Each structure stands twice: as structure tokens, then as C-alpha cells.
Amino acid sequence: MLPRVRAAVAQLVAGLGAEPRSGGAGEPPPEPCGPSEPCGRSRPEPCGRSEPCCRPAFLQLSPAELRRAQDHAGRAVQSPRDRRRRLPWSTGYAEVINAGKSQHNEDQACCEVVFVERRPSPRGRLLSKEGCGELAGGRKGFYFHYWALFDGHAGSGAAVMASERLHLHICEQLRDLVDILQDPSPPPICLPHGPVELSQMPLTEDDGEVPSDAVPRFHLEKAISHESLVIGAIETAFKHMDDQIEQERASQHLAGGCCALAAVYLMGKFYVANAGDSRAIIIRNGEIIPMSREFTPETERQRLQFLAFLRPELLGKEFTHLEFPRRIQPKELGRKILYRDQDMNGWAYKKIEEDDLKFPLIYGEGKKARVMATIGVTRGLGDHDLKVFSSNIHIKPFLSCFPEVRVYDLTQYEHCPDDVLVLGTDGLWDVTNDKEVAGVVMEVLRSYEPNDPCRYTMVAQELVVRSRGVLKERGWRLANDKLGSGDDISVFVIPLGGPGNYT
Questions:
Q1: How far apart, in Å, are the Cα atoms of 238 and each of 166, 226, 244, 262?
Q2: Please, are residues 459 and 281 in contact by the beta-carbon 8 Å criterion?
Q3: Which of 117, 275, 450, 451 is the Cys-Cys partner for 141 at CB 3.0 to 4.6 Å?
Q4: How many Cβ atoms are within 10 Å of 212's Cβ, its own excluded?
Q5: Backbone phi, then psi, for 309, in 5-degree steps?
Q6: Tens digit of each residue's pLDDT (9 = 90 or more) over 309-354
Q7: What is the pTM of this model?
Q8: Cβ(54)–Cβ(103) under 8 Å?
Q9: To 10 degrees, what angle do helices 226-248 and 157-174 make?
Q10: What are the C-alpha distances in Å from 19 to residues 255, 260, 379, 397?
């Protein structure tokens, strides 16, 4: 065991990634929304999995621009720079490639306006009190705005597929909710089979009468909000996206995995979903409102330890779920040393036994913390083939694809043109904190007129430039001469004032 663990630690220190995995050829993936394509108003052409480089379609890079974007030495910042390439909602975006950490930029991004069409029923359509928005041609449904960043690791395949498909999975999950979300009455607990007035939906599946012995139980039914339905739809979409990556990773040559950060604007609210170590903050009138948190081995220690405690077979007889302040030495058998388990926030002493000499499930601290000495994030998409170095121990069971979703209600506040939502991959946050990002945002916005649609792109560019730094003799350096970010950096800046009529 010890040689294997030493090799894993050596790989960790050297910063090496897992080898990309590939499989045989297969059929193209099916569309999540069905052959009628009701979900997207427009979508980019998928990037070929075998292509050496794939950048967001909304950048519309020419071959020369693409070559410049892939230059690790120059690290030129890329943005939609002219009116022809302006993003919805006056959104600002900028990105830059890493300083040689990986061959290609493994970040991906997506910005879409998506139409959700009401799902047809075999026996008709649901009829709501208020009805839903109807477009020319009789299509009924609503739009949502969507922004997402995907930070790939050990290859870009998972990030590329997620950037092309996650919004379609979200759309598919929302189709059952088209009528429900536009009806002010509480959501039904059970969807009907045929056309029924939502407000007159029966309490049981067979008829509208409530059995007398069931009355107390129905009085105790939980009140479900419309907001929680949208959160559930986004969470389910992430799971289906992860399932699709697993099913098609061989035929589509999907290497590695990715962190995912997505923002959905729907009916007056922002839903920010995060699975990984990318982050989002709102800057409103100078106030900083966190809209996500990082999911790392340290922040999810107790969840990981609890799973290992319940299913010790996942540890492969080579790891221990207990945490110690440092590695335990064989000569310390029988001594009392500080430890903590899945139920503890504090520390206590325990007598060291033979099993405690195994390598800890979580090792290191801060940005160097790793699960099984291998991966530094605990939520994301993909990584289905990831194993502990030189072993057959799978790490995927410890990695969750479910995001944490936070909600911000735009209708509760009066927003000015300087109020924004910032989404950034960890390349931004590794070298800048929330306060510094807010300072850059306010500084740049003050130098542009409030009605200048390019001001948010300029903010995104400045955030990327300042976190990248300037190339000097000792590498990329920030203004304070500290080491700049050598990672891929991607940033969205979204004005909370919005485009006026959002739908």
C-alpha cells in the first residue's frame, strides 16, 4: 500500500492530472428535449470531441483569433468585442488560457435564452387559471435566461458536453411546470393524466374524494413553493447531465470531469446553482452578497467521512475515514493522538490502532486538500473513470453531481445599472477575494456611462487581466508582485437591472 500512496502523493505534488480515457465509436447523443427541439431559441453547433480546441460559440473566434487565444505565452484575453457578438442581457464575458498547466483551455461557457414549451399530454393539455404565454404559431410556454461556466479537469470533454447540453436538461425538467409556475395556487402534489383545471385537481389519483381515514394525513402535507419546484428541476437536470456523460463517455471520448456553475433567470428570480469550486457573488449598491460556496474536501469533510463510515468497502482497505492533524507513524501505535470523525466539529484524543495507519480519506489543507490524494473538488460532473493512482479504487462515489442552489429575488429591490452578478471559475478566486472583485467592478463601471452596453464586458476583461497579472521574469505577477493566476480564467458579469422586459 505505502508505495502506491507515495506515488499518489508524488503525483499530487507534481500537479499531474489523470490520463484522458477514451472508448470506441458510437452513435451521436440524443437530444434531451426530443426531436421537436422546443427548448432552445438558438444553440451553437457542438464541438467535435476529437478537436484539439473548442471555445464558446458566442465568441465567434476566427482561426487567427483562436490561435491567439491558445497561446500560453501571450495569454490574450478573449471577449465578444463588437455589436455583432453582443450577449443577451448586455452580459459581459472574458476569458484567458492557463500559463501552461494544461495543453488547452479546459474552461467552457454558455449563454442562452431558452424557450420552455408546455409538454403535450396523450389526453390533452393542462389548463391553468391564468393560462400561459402563447407565441405566434400556438406554442405555449415561457423563456428563461441562462449563463454557465464549466471548469474542466483531466481533459475538456465533460465540460464541452455540459456546456452544450445542461440548459437543455433544465428546459426538459421545466416543461412539466409551465402551467404550475404561472398559476398562483399551491402546486399539486400529483400531476394528472388528462386535462384538468389545476385548482380542481383531485387529492387522490382515482377520484376527487378524500377517504375519511386519510384526512389527518392530508392535513399534514407539506406546503411546496413554486421556487422549490424550480430548484428541484435544476438539481434533477444536473443529475441527468451527469448520467448522460457517464452513458456516452466512451462513444463521445469524454475525458475527465468539470465543476459547474449556472445562473438561471426565471420569472423575476435568479437561481444560482454551483457544483464545484467556481463561485458567484452579487454586488448591490456596494454590498457583497455571496451566491455560492466552494465544495472542497475541507468544506465537505463530514459528508465524505460519513459515506466512508457507512460504506467502508469504498476505501479499498487502503484508506481510513478518520482525520488526524498529520500522518500517523507506526511507532505511535498505542499512543493517544488527536482525531475527529464524521460526527465531530472539534477534536478529541484516541488510542492509535493498526487501522489508523492507513492513508486518510482527506489529506492536506486549503487548495492542497485532496480526496484520496487525487482530486481537490467534491462536486461536479463527470469523473466516472477516476481512480486512485495505480489502483482499482473508484473515487466517483465520493463526488456529488448535485448543486447547491441559491435564489435571489430581483423584484424585492430597486437595482441601479451598477448592480451586477459576477460568475467566475476558480482561476479568478484563487488570487482575488470578494472585496477586491467588488472594488474592480465599481471602479470600472464608474468610468463608463450607465447606458453604455459595453461597460459589463470591460468589467469582465479587467477582472481577468488583474487576476492573470503581467508577465515578468519570475512569471505572471499581480500589481502587488504576488504570483498571478496560472489557471484558466472565465468570468461573466451580468447586470441585475436586466434588459427591461425579460420575456
A1: 7, 19, 10, 10
A2: no
A3: 117
A4: 7
A5: -65, -40
A6: 999 999 999 999 999 999 999 999 999 999 999 999 999 999 999 9
A7: 0.84
A8: no
A9: 140
A10: 8, 21, 20, 19
